[in-house]
What does this fold into?
Amino acid sequence: MNFKSKLPNTSTSIFTVMSALAKQHNAINLSQGFPDFPSSKKLNDLVANAMNTGYNQYAPMAGNLDLRLAIAHKYELLYKSHYHPEKEITVTAGATQAIYTIISAFVNKNDEVIIFKPAYDSYQPAIEINGGKPIAVQLEAPNYKVNWDEVASKISSKTKMIIINSPHNPSGTIWSKEDMLQLQKLTNGTNIIVLSDEVYEHIVFDDAQHQSVCLFQDLKQRSFITASFGKTFHNTGWKIGYCCAPDYLMSEFRKVHQFNVFSVHHPSQKGIADYMQDSETYLGLNAFFQQKRDLFLKLISESRFKFQPSKGTYFQVLDYSEVTDEYDVDFAKRLTKEFKMASIPLSVFNDNGKDDKVLRFCFAKTDETLLQAAEIVNRI
It folds into this structure.
């Protein structure tokens, strides 16, 4: 059959490649961002209880109402920001589905979407498959700070959307209040929609504060927030996320969502709603993951790798420029095959494959796994 691919230049995700390589060579997998420890038994029991008490048919299209109420309460508690649980919150099949649906709902042919690279790999294909044009702003290692003059120069009459991500995957950096104010200033008085990927909002270190778009009133009125329970509650395989937005934006989102997914796993939604009645289930994450970051960095402090401590997420970027001058993809594959440790090369997320000689390592692992990984890092 003859057909024209909508994504002719898209290959298998680097996450799939590296995880498969890790399995093939029996390597420690610090590549794909998932924990190697279980989700809470209490949460698992609450989901099982939801199954046993009848939550086994379709959830409402927008999501289980108890869960939407719990999400709304969280925003009031953390940010003093209100989202209407019936009109402004929708539960999704993970944050990636939310991101794809937002782009599908608003991006038309030849619309431009600004993305900051290194960028999570779902953004660009979603833009392209909807006929849009990604406009890259390359962030420079090792600080990955935004050059706002460059951003301003890339905004045009065709700019439909700006996608931001803080805490930032893959660099582990966070946006400051000043960054958010600059974004608010640049988009004020425009028709630009902001898609704020905030899946790591509860994983911010060293007493820093997550700067959500909902803290900035002008930004909030033009923005979607996407979030992930998989990242928050250590169960990425459940694929439960959500998004929040003003009702005039959310109503357009739901037009696409209802024909894309309609609704997601009902007992998981009910179990998470019950679990979230205790706010400590998400408030304690910063300290939990900072202990893991600090342990990993202490263990590799005498290695040949250079680093700036991650500011957020559960990823640490390591600079290997004093180890080898190999292309980062080649070095990552060699580490997996020869040293039995998998990581993620950052060039695949950069504009034109820019190679800064850095790899991303996931530290959402047991202390035992981190000890084993550090031993490998130290002998490279």
